[in-house]
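Appendix B. Extra example for self-study. Work through it before the problem class; the solution is given directly after the inputs so you can check yourself.
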Amino acid sequence: MNSKIPSSISPLAEDFEDFFDHSVCGFIITDAESNIQRMNKTAAEWLNGSPDDFINKRFSDLFAVGGRIYFETHLWPLLRMQGHFDEVTVELADTGNGKMPIYLNGLERKADTGLPVFMRFVLFRATDRRLYEQNLQMAKQLAEKELSGEKQNAVIREQFIAVLGHDLRNPLGAIMSATQMLARTTLAKNEERLIKVLQNSSKRMHEMIDNIMDLARGRLGSGITINPTTVNLDDLLKEVAEELKLAWPERIIDFDFDIETEVNCDRGRIAQLTSNLLANALTHGSNDASVLLKAVANDSYWEISISNQGKPIPEHSFANLFHPFHRQDAHSSQNGLGLGLYIASEIAKAHQGQITVLSNEQVTSFTFKVIMA
Amino acid sequence: MSIIKRNNVTIRGTGQQVMMFAHGFGCDQHMWRYIVPAFEDDYKVVMFDHVGAGNSDLSAYSYEKYDRLDGYATDIVEIATALQLQDVIFVGHSVSAIIGLMAAEMAPHLFKSLILVAPSPCYINDEDYVGGFRKDEIDELLESLNSNHLGWSMAMGPVIMGNPDRKELGEELSNSFCKTDPEIAKHFARTTFLTDKRSILPQVKLPSLILQCSNDVIAPVEVGEYMHKNMPNSTLVIMSATGHCPNLSAPHETTAAIKAFL
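Solution. Structure tokens for the complete assembly:
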């Protein structure tokens, strides 16, 4: 590599002997059996010798043991079957220069008979490249390890939520039935008020636990399961609206139904979805405008759409809208946990439908739509 | 899971007498491409890929089962049983030669004779025994596999897909040769190169042909001689072919040696 250009050739001469011997890569030519017939000085220098030292040696003898076995069991067969191989990483044997990593390319030259006549190999120094690749490999391994740890944590967290939700139900059930029994006894005026508080609060808590259980089901199991039956949307939606009016007596819910047919769905789950979306509209919508509950059902699709007026959903909220525990506004949350939209979207998924959102200065609407197969 | 699908078993040829070809470490059934045509007219040729190699079902790979060569030997017996093969002439290359000996020990009634191409019962030198490698060399090999110092099989995918140099291989090129999952290749290397099955040799009663190459880095001549000495019913042929894959480097010589034995 460092030897001086002989005075007999000009710097640009097409001296192929010189090109072969003093090159940026190693050149090796072997016979069909892969015994070295010719080698350039660059390759020989990498191996701490001169080309003559290697003539008639087997090509794989140039490599450290891993590469030697790899060549004989993988690369050589590949060369015979495919005629070439490219960019394979191996290490040269340690002949005083350490085990130098190289990229190896091989090509088989065949005679007309189809039998190989000789083979050419080109060797590229790959010390820095290998280091870089090893760093990448290490980073990948590290990332995989961290990811699997995180996944385990997530499972444990969600199992914890499921167990917690389940265990909270029993004591709450006892409180609710005790309150119910007290309510039937004769009560003083202020006691009645207190019982009302107990009933409302325990009902809200019951809903929250249901939501937590749904979350756990959606995240841990196969998602929310449904039991579809034939349902008259008109009845169902009006029932849900009535229920919500009890909590928001001063608000108006307008209907706009175009229901031509009954639909096949899980009655309880669709009621839950509608209730979650309506509660959101009533909570976040403008107090002095009505909320519109729209429904369409015909042979090609059915949809339920809830629209309210008021401030639009801030842009930064959109990405996480349907994520669990997402709360648009921490202060006015009636639902408590920010699970309403997540559960609604899980119910939509279970019905092979989806929920789309539209929000601007005039209107914010959530539309759940199922297209008939 | 069907055994045929698991091991990507292919059957060719028009004969009655069965020849079963088993590829060695680093390859798949394609490695018999230059040998099989010479036998197709007279034999029923059964080829397969070991689980983890070629087009075998990777999901069938079990680190427990294939931690020992017994796992691979069981597969061979299962293939022969599933196809209701009898009097099988078994041809195994490299580690598969030894796997064949083990299969013949498990189910001697299935086999007629054994043809062992570049076999080695033990790759590591042990006192007077010459296996070809020192223990520290094999450790170095396994270590270099572990730390990914080599491009073993990882680099193989795109390489193999690359260049349709040989037109007649076009169809197979799209499936690629000798593809191996890097993790499985590592494990197979460990299972293969740490094996010592020398004790099985004297028990092999079937007529056996040992095809030993000259100048084979993986299985030196001493190994062939050792096997011949320890296998009572064996024939040793030292081929002029060099390297570890005479079936690829010298198909004519390999075919002729097999035919002479049969």
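Self-check: The first strand of chain A starts at residue 26 and ends at 31. If your reasoning did not lead you there, revisit section 3.
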